[in-house]
Each structure stands twice: as structure tokens, then as C-alpha cells.
Amino acid sequence: MFLVTGATGDIGRRVVRLLRESDKQVRAFVRLSSHYGELEHRGAELFIGDLRFERDIKKACQGVRYIISTHGSDGDALALDYRANIELIDQAKVNGVEHFVFISVLGADRGYEDAPVFKAKREVEKYLVSSGLNYTILRPAGLASNLLPLAERFRETGIYVLIGDAKNRTSIVSTDDLAKIAVNSVSVIGARNQIFPVGGPSILTREDIPRTFSRIFNKEPVIINAPLFLVDGFRGALGLINPQAQKSLGTFRTLLANEFFCKTEEITNLEAIFTFPLEPLESFLKRYLSI
Ligand SMILES: NC(=O)c1ccc[n+]([C@@H]2O[C@H](COP(=O)([O-])OP(=O)(O)OC[C@H]3O[C@@H](n4cnc5c(N)ncnc54)[C@H](OP(=O)(O)O)[C@@H]3O)[C@@H](O)[C@H]2O)c1
């Protein structure tokens, strides 16, 4: 039995889909408020709960052999990115779990002090590595599925808003490839007890994204390049009324202000270990936008 957290999310639902396609037993951890119809339809067992509650995590882990942690944090990094994963790891030990796959983030090890999600991910990574469990830690760059709503907006308006340095590099990864890597991590020997940066096959600059949209839709892009200090100004003002939200925005700012790309040799290594070629961004977008 696989336990998948974040099972309704972009990565999680693809993980559940892949597992069910190969007839694996899956327990999908979902909230009552989530859209979980597809998971049920695919034959996953639903566990309805909330990752903020230890008792729910404890129950969900009973009798599972593998855990794939893909949940996000809704702005509460301490409760969800940190505590929920620590509890999942503890319960994995109690239940004799054979392999724990953790979705971290590229740059988790860079010590970004202002980014609660990055800090939480790094602490969980350390805890998992020293837990004695078999593990695979995946550190993805940006997910291609995040771009789908932006591409739809571009299709209608031709506008793309880019905040910060347009020359910053990124390695957007196909969300389907990431899900496949997560699932295969439990069986591929070379993935055992490893930490992998996960990106797409090529290094892009952030301005390559509207250019890609432009090629797909055959439309001249109107790129609105907003400076980062606008985010800082907004953040400062927000801090006056909601200090917690101001802190959460630190992760967003970190993502905008830095480069998140994988080196060519890291991608070559990933392809060699998981034995499939990673999908270029343009191909991913065309598949989902039916072009
Ligand atoms: N998006 C990126 O570009 C990116 C890049 C690097 C790493 N990551 C990491 O990848 C992971 C997944 O990202 P994603 O974009 O697939 O996330 P997502 O689509 O936002 O999904 C988040 C999932 O977490 C679930 N969740 C949130 N709070 C919960 C709670 N209290 N109890 C139970 N479930 C809860 C959500 O359930 P509901 O359906 O109920 O909301 C949803 O299934 C995250 O750990 C993220 O940090 C993402």
C-alpha cells in the first residue's frame, strides 16, 4: 500500500494516476474540502483528514509500505512543510515503511533565511536522511503545470507579466516526469538514499517562457517586466496588517529573486538513473493545451 499526501495536488494526483495504472494499492490523503472524485474513480482508497493533525497522520500511515509526500503548505510552512512531514517520517518508522519519497525544492540547501518553505524542506531532508528509512529526496525546479493558467491567459491576451530579472535561469520540469520519477524512486536501485535536483532537459531564462507561449500560439508577446522592489513594497505594507502573511511571502520573493536551474550533468544523471528522456517544456504545454 502506498500512502500519497497532497493527492489532489498537481504532483500528487499524477502520482496516484501512475500508481493506479500499474494496479498498485493507493491510500490518498485528502481533505474533505478537496476535489477527490478522480482519485476515487481511479480506485484509490481515500483517507479523509487534515495533515495539521497528528492523529490523522498516525491513522493514515497504518499498514502502509511506501510513503510519497507531495503536499504543499497553504502558507503554513511550519505546520505542513515541516511538522506534518516530521510526523509522517516518525510514523513511517513505526509502521516499518520500506521507502519514503519526499518532494523538496531546488535550492533547499542554500540557506535562504527569509523563505519558510525552503527552511522547512531542508530540516525535513536532514531528518529523513538520519531516520534510518530508505528514502529518495527530489528537489524540483518550477513545475510546468504551474504555467498552464498563464499560458491560457496569454492565449487570450498575449500578455505575460514577469517579475524580477528576465535573464534569471530556470529548469522548468514536466510535472508528469516528476511524478514518474517519484513513483519509480521506490524501485530503482540507483534512487535509494539519494537526493536529486529535478529539472527539465534544458536551461531556460525566464523570458524564454513568454517566447515559448508566443511560438505555441503564434502570437507576439507583450511582456510586462515588473521590478522586484514592487513585491518588496507590497510585502512591507502587508506586514503592517498581517505579519504572518508577510513572512510567507518571503518564499515567493526568494523564488522570484534567484535562479533555480539544474546543471546539464545533473539532468544527464537523472535520465540515466530513471532511464527515460525528460520532456521539454514546449512539448508539455502543447499536450495540455491540445495544440
Ligand atoms: N509548484 C512548484 O513549482 C514546486 C516547485 C518545487 C517544489 N514544489 C513542491 O511540490 C509539492 C507539491 O506542489 P504542488 O504544486 O503539486 O502543490 P499543490 O498543487 O498546491 O497541492 C498541494 C496539495 O497539498 C494538499 N494540502 C494542503 N494543505 C493540506 C492539509 N492541511 N491537509 C491535507 N492536505 C493538504 C492540497 O490539498 P487540497 O486539494 O485540499 O488543497 C493539495 O493536494 C509541494 O511540497 C511543493 O513545495 C512545488
TrEMBL record:
Q: Does the keyword Iron apply?
A: no
Q: Biological process GO terms, please?
A: photosynthesis
Instruction: List the Pfam families hit by this protein, alphabetically.
Output: NAD_binding_10 (PF13460)
Top-level taxon: Bacteria
Spell out the CDD domains in the cross-references: SDR_a5 (cd05243)
Which key words are in the record?
Answer: Photosynthesis, Photosystem II
What InterPro entries does the database record attribute to this sequence? HCF244-like (IPR044256), NAD(P)-bd_dom (IPR016040), NAD(P)-bd_dom_sf (IPR036291)
NAD(P)-binding domain: which residues? 6-186
Got a GO cellular component term for this one? Answer: photosystem II
Q: Under which name does UniProt file this protein?
A: Oxidoreductase
Organism equals Dulcicalothrix desertica PCC 7102
Task: List the taxonomic lineage.
Answer: Bacteria, Bacillati, Cyanobacteriota, Cyanophyceae, Nostocales
